[in-house]
Amino acid sequence: MTEETPGFEEKPDVPSGATPDDAAPKAAPAQGAAPAGDSSAQLAGLTAQLDQVRTALGERTADLQRLQAEYQNYRRRVERDRITVREIAIANLLTELLPVLDDIGRAREHGELVGGFKSVAESLETVAAKMGLQQFGKEGEPFDPTIHEALMHSYAPDVTETTCVAILQPGYRIGERTIRPARVAVAEPQPGATAVKAEGADEAPAAGDEKDNGPEEG
């Protein structure tokens, strides 16, 4: 058996011609340590990626806002079109009922609106009014070609402008929309009446002056 000499440690074999430092174990390089230049590059890359994400987010947000605005405009347009179609449908229906309403008006003028016919007629007029139908046209109001249709024409000395002197058929409107103008007879001022009135007005003070300049009492 081989005996070990106490007090001596066994040293690794050193090749001939090598220094003692070559026999010493070398320390392993540190794990995870990166150069400072690599860290700056990574930070710059992350910043660029963040800027790209922010830009993309802004674009998507703008797209969403634009789509929302277009949708709101679409809803308003659809609602406006729906109201317009409804008004046109109601106007068409009420236009077909105008001859019936004219018959009811004539019957009322002649005292023939009595009994069950009166009840039905009044119910029809109430329903038409609820749907927005309004009657217009009165005697004595100035003639307006936008809402009146003149069927008869005459002259009158007691009017100062073209005036509706008779309502042959009342007009009807729904809101601001006229569905039938009032059919009227109109009268214009008598030709020369204005000049005569003006001359009379000028002569009136002269007559008064003659009265004032009468013979004085002795």
TrEMBL record:
Lineage top rank: taxon: Bacteria
Listed Low complexity bias regions: 17-38, 195-207
Stretches for region Disordered: 1-41, 187-218
Keyword field: Chaperone, Coiled coil, Cytoplasm, Stress response
Residue ranges the record marks as coiled coil: 57-84
Compartments reported by the entry: Cytoplasm
PROSITE patterns reported in the protein's UniProt record: GRPE (PS01071)
SUPFAM superfamilies xref list: Coiled-coil domain of nucleotide exchange factor GrpE (SSF58014), Head domain of nucleotide exchange factor GrpE (SSF51064)
Cited Pfam families: GrpE
Ranges of compositional bias, category Basic and acidic residues: 208-218
NCBIfam families cross-referenced by the UniProt entry: PRK14163.1 (NF010760)
Function according to Swiss-Prot or TrEMBL: Participates actively in the response to hyperosmotic and heat shock by preventing the aggregation of stress-denatured proteins, in association with DnaK and GrpE. It is the nucleotide exchange factor for DnaK and may function as a thermosensor. Unfolded proteins bind initially to DnaJ; upon interaction with the DnaJ-bound protein, DnaK hydrolyzes its bound ATP, resulting in the formation of a stable complex. GrpE releases ADP from DnaK; ATP binding to DnaK triggers the release of the substrate protein, thus completing the reaction cycle.
Family of the protein in this entry: Belongs to the GrpE family.
Subunit architecture: Homodimer.
PANTHER family the record matches: GRPE PROTEIN, GRPE PROTEIN HOMOLOG, MITOCHONDRIAL
Protein name in the entry: Protein GrpE
Gene responsible for this protein: grpE
